Amino acid sequence: MKTLATVVTDRGQVSIPAEIRKQMKLLSGQRIVWELTSLTECRITLPPAKRPHGAVAMLGYASTFRRTRRTKEWMAELREGEKT
Predict the structure, then answer these.
(1) Pair 20, 30: CB distance under 8 Å
(2) Do 45 and 35 form a contact (C-beta atoms < 8 A)?
(3) What's the start-to-end Cα distance of the chain, in Å?
(4) Any residues with CB less than 8 A from the CB of 30 and at least 6 apart, and which?
(5) In degrees rounded to 5, what are phi and psi of residue 37?
């Protein structure tokens, strides 16, 4: 693997080279963990994705019981009673 270098800004920010971002499939806003291994080295890892707990976890689960419908379909169903 070739060595890539970046510069630390005045605010302590660094850019991850595009080649590394693509290989690690990093997305904007994604968390990474920095671990100091020695005074001159650190390790960057991706934490495991957190699964939602409690009521938030049910949001995706409820959709398995019904199909999604377009607005036109909803409106047609609501207006069926108006035709008589």
Answers:
(1) no
(2) yes
(3) 73
(4) 46
(5) -100, -30
Question: Tens of pLDDT along the chain (84 residues)?
Answer: 688 899 999 999 999 999 999 999 998 888 999 999 999 999 999 988 777 777 777 776 666 666 777 888 888 888 887 765
Whole-angstrom Cα distance, residue 48 to residue 29? 15
Tokens of 3: 């060595």
The residues near 52 (Cβ < 8 Å, ≥ 6 apart) are: 59
Three-state secondary-structure class, residue 56: helix
Question: What's the pTM?
Answer: 0.52
Token output for 35: 């671990």
pLDDT of residue 32: 92
Cβ 45 vs Cβ 32: under 8 Å: yes
